[in-house]
Amino acid sequence: MHKPLGEFIRLHREQTKPQDVGLRADGRRRTPGLRREELAQLCDVSPTWLEQGRPVSASAKVLGRLADVMHLTAAERTYLFRLADKLDTSEANHDSPSANFAAIVKAIRTPAYILDRQWDAIAWNRPATDLFSGWLDQGKSAAPANLLRFMFGSSSARSLIADWPERAQRLVAEFRADCGKYADDEPYASLIAELRRDSEEFKTMWNAHHVLGRDGGSRRFRHPTQGALTFEQVTLNLAAAREVKLVMLLPA
Fold first, then answer.
1. Membrane-crossing residues (predicted)?
2. Do 27 and 66 have their domain in common?
């Protein structure tokens, strides 16, 4: 375990009161807060594992237990996982639709939508609904409105997106960059396996290992009722939820 990770765990262990985790604080304690052995027991790990500065790889499951026991805030939990170089895939940390997300896209007058880490659309506005026929106009169905599923699994995408082959290649390269070394972890792994199984084009593009930043650029559409449309795409990560992306299509 890297030294900064061990120091961070020690600091928050010492700030966690025994009574806050159901332990009795009997007798005098040389160590403020929880003892190392107590935290290890609560997290079901060996006491020698904690805070030793050894190159031990902490699993995401153990890190999640540590965060829960020490009552870390969302920001502290994110920092813990970053120090350990792990992806937090717990349900408690999943980005989900919220009133704030809906308010953000509703305030934008041009097509705008928000994607979570696996590129499911979790909020979008009316202009985006009107533009993306076959994707965001399907309503809140049981299946997530995933951008890659739409791109490779819907005939509407091929007719709507003017330069479909180039855009499809770019999207796959951008998604690979997003996944990074976590492509074999959930929630990415199941989605990638599904797309590889259902689309030979996705499989070929994914196997090419191209990587691109999601930097925006010109987006051209052939809308069934609005005709030819051109936008300039702007993509931003939200400070309050860094795993999600706000995508805006501005008039070109």
1. none
2. yes
